[in-house]
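Weekly puzzle thread! Below is a chain. First person to post its structure in token form gets bragging rights.
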Amino acid sequence: MIISSHIITATAVTIPLIVAPANTGNIALIFAAAFCSHYVLDLIPHWDYQLSSIKTCHRQEKIGCIKKSEIKKDFFKILIDGLLGISVSFSIINLVPTSLKEKSFILFLAIIASILPDFFEVLYIFFKKQPISFLHKIHLIFHRRNIYIGEPQKGIPLQVAVISAIVILFVFIL
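Winning reply:
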């Protein structure tokens, strides 16, 4: 899934927890729910855009398989994706009657937790040691093989439908 899908889903699944009092246990539960939502989404067939700065490494290359000339393009692609997710998440979280300070903190927590597995994947490019290697293996277990890269006409409608169903379920039903 793209970053905005992870952010929107994490926000939606934490909505039932937001209305509870903000204590250490609840905050930990919000973080865990947002983090785990990343892996659950990755089980679903979906569309991912290609990052042109990441290239295939040869076996003798240990670290840093990056095309430096493409980093700026990928950075803006990821930035726009993330900002889209954040703006939709603010719209969702504003449906909950809590103070703006609590909403902002919980939204920040959900966003960080939801994209953390992909951040670990970036770290894996440079540091193929434990615990990053272990986290990479976990991500591969959950990440489906049938990702519609290059086929947005298949993957995007499915992704929009899944995210919409999650938002409706967690925001309006639960």
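Puzzle host: Confirmed. Bonus trivia for everyone else. Residues 100-126 form the longest helix (27 residues).
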